[in-house]
Amino acid sequence: MNRHPTLPKGEAIAENQHNAAELAPTPDSARRRPVSVEVGAPFWTTGKFKSISAENDLGLENVGAFLLRRLLPGIVEATPQAGYYTFYTYLLAKHEERSESASRADLIPFFRRQELAYAIACRLHTHRVGALVGIQGSSGARRAIRENEETIDLSAYVDNYIDARLGGYGLFYARMLEAVRLTKPGAYQMADRATDRGRNLALAFARTFEQTRYYREFFEADVVPIEVLRDLGDHVCLCTIPGRSDHEVLLDVFVGDAGQELAWESLRQRRIKSFSIHLT
Ligand SMILES: [Zn+2]
């Protein structure tokens, strides 16, 4: 836009540079070169925005995510594996059983140590499916495997294998587990708790998990032999469902036992209808 059609071109540009700096001051504007604009062209955006690449320019991904949450309440859509529903519920129930503290801060070290060991175990496993997606903390686990030969000192990786303090649970699963009534949210700064339904699932998982050498000898150890973690993966990797001891209970969590409360039952009905579309 030419706001000074009578000014010579050079003067208009100079004034526009001055106006542009006033209109959009930035912390580092003093270090920037003046914005060059041309008379007859809008100057207030020219040079103001950097060109960036994006795969979701119109925000349509959020629309899709919203629809999936409506159609599949309580289901993490990013992976076909359901193993973390069990594993995270088990960790919450186990910590509650072993600890006198219900604070989230006291849960975190236990949780991260176990999630890291599980991620390594899953990465070491020869999966029944071609490619396994959805291992939480996968890149940190890969680094731990790459940098060690016979044993892994988990304490060297537990602080940085994933950024989120409660790992994949905090990032993706917490609200999903709550939506299928495996957990109930903790009060401010308190840990989430497994419900009776969640503890039932955790018990079914424990029948396999607590038979492993990892659980019996290395559950709290810093240094764990890689063979022990490999054996853990053989027993409880994400891909060991279907067929694992918690499989049937997990199915009930998603689609079984009709709920008495209308709100929970409507979510269950919606999951069943959405799943059935894939089966027809
Ligand atoms: Zn596997």
Cα radius of gyration in angstroms: 27 Å
Distance from N terminus to C terminus (CA atoms, Å) equals: 59 Å
Bound compounds: zinc ion
The largest beta-sheet arranges its strands as 1-4
Cα shape: globular
Number of strands: 4
Number of helices: 11
Structural class: mainly alpha
Overall mean pLDDT score?
A: 83
Account of the 3D structure:
With 280 residues, this protein is mostly helical. It has a domain at 78-254. The chain contains 11 helices and 4 strands. The protein has helices at 9-23, 60-71, 83-98, 104-124, 138-146, 167-179, 196-209, 213-218, 226-236, 247-255, 262-279, and strands at 151-153, 183-184, 193-194, 223-225. The strands form 2 sheets. A two-stranded antiparallel ribbon has the order 1-4. A two-stranded antiparallel sheet has the order 2-3. β2 (183-184) and β3 (193-194) form a beta hairpin. The radius of gyration is 27 Å and the shape is globular. Bound molecules: zinc ion (ZN). The site of zinc ion has 7 residues, from loops.
Q: Summarize this, please?
A:
The protein contains 11 helices and 4 strands, in the order H-H-H-H-H-E-H-E-E-H-H-E-H-H-H. With 280 residues, the protein is mainly alpha-helical. The strands form 2 sheets. It has a two-stranded antiparallel sheet. Strands 2-3 form a two-stranded antiparallel ribbon.
Task: Draw up the topology in text.
Blueprint: H1 9-23, H2 60-71, H3 83-98, H4 104-124, H5 138-146, E1 151-153, H6 167-179, E2 183-184, E3 193-194, H7 196-209, H8 213-218, E4 223-225, H9 226-236, H10 247-255, H11 262-279
Antiparallel strand pairs: 1-4, 2-3
Helix pairs in contact: 3-4, 3-6, 3-7, 4-5, 4-9, 7-10
